[in-house]
Amino acid sequence: MALRAIMLRSKIDKKKSELEALRQKDAEFATREAELEKVIEEASTDEEQAAVQEEVEKYETEKAAHDAAKSGLETEISGLEDELTEVEKDPPAEPVVRTEKKVERTRAMDFKAMNIRSLPKHMRAFDAIPYNDKMAMLQREDVKEFLTRVREMMKNKRAVSGADLMIPVVFLELISENMYRYSKLVNRVRVRNVRGEARQTIAGTVPEAVWTEMCGAINELSFNFNQIEADG
Fold first, then answer.
1. pLDDT number for residue 105
2. Which residues lie below 8 Å from residue 167, measured CB to CB, with a gap of 6+?
3. Which of 118, 164, 111, 150 is nearest to 134 (CA)?
4. Residue (of 84, 85, 74) closest to 135 by Cα position
5. Please, are residues 105 and 130 in contact by the beta-carbon 8 Å criterion?
6. What are the tens digits of pLDDT across the range 160-187?
7. Which stretch of DSSP H or E encloses residue 200?
8. Percent of the chain with pLDDT over 70
9. Crossing angle of the two packed helices 46-88 and 26-42, in degrees rounded to 10
10. pLDDT of residue 103
11. SS3 sequence, 83-144?
């Protein structure tokens, strides 16, 4: 039992060293992103824009691989620490039937309270989540399967379609909050969450404007409003 614990501690220390090395590269990616933003603004010719597009794609590929590697190491470390905790426990007096399926956290996280919308663009929204909540998300079976699938797709560099595009439900609210940092549209519309069916009043086709002479009769334009129904 003691040898098993020593071996697990050694693995954990090695994985943590690898994770720390990856985290030290976060600043490099932030610098590259800032430089690319400046280059994008300065690019004027088609040749310059094509070169910038190539650099952006290269950066996004490397950044995605970097983030996936960090998430994978965090998941591995968490699993090893859980295993070490079990090993260091006193052996039970009677055999206990254990299930391999971990209990997933059901408490909903308040992403709005984390002020994700106000984060600087060089900071990942995922980094704003408290450590314990983050680890709970990464230990979910659906999240583990998703991250494994993403790493395989990046490694094989294959096209993604169909069910491979499915994102775990636990990430949807986080993505929704993160959209406010990048979308030019979502900040200009009124977003409301509804349950079941809902109705929304909308304007119909707006009539074409009419030029009226200074002394001419005023033209009347018709505006029609109606309601549409939307459901879940």
1. 45
2. 146, 175
3. 111
4. 74
5. no
6. 777 667 888 888 888 888 888 888 888 7
7. strand 198-203
8. 88
9. 160
10. 42
11. HHHHHHCCCCCCCCCCCCCCCCCCCCCCCHHHCHHHCCCCCCHHHHCCHHHHHHHHCCHHHH
Enter the tokens of residue 13.
Answer: 């220390």
185 contacts 161 by C-beta, under 8 angstroms: no
Q: Measure Cα distances from 11 to 25, 67, 74 in Å.
A: 22, 21, 13
- Evaluate whether 200 touches 230 at the Cβ level (below 8 Å): yes
Whole-angstrom distance between the N-terminal and C-terminal Cα of the chain?
53
Residues 6+ apart with CB under 8 A from 78: 135, 138, 139
In sequence order, the β-bridge partners of residue 227 are 201
Residue 196 falls in which region: left (phi positive, over 0), alpha (psi -120 to 50) or beta: left
pLDDT, residue 160, reads 73
- Position 68, amino acid: A
What is the Cα–Cα distance from 28 to 197, expressed in whole angstroms?
A: 48
Place of tokens 């379609």: 161
Average pLDDT, the chain: 79
Cα–Cα dist 32/38, whole Å: 10
Averaged pLDDT for residues 12-40:
85
pLDDT of residue 91: 54
pTM: 0.36
Q: Would you say 200 and 227 are in contact if contact means Cβ atoms under 8 Å apart? A: yes
The SS3 of residue 185 is coil
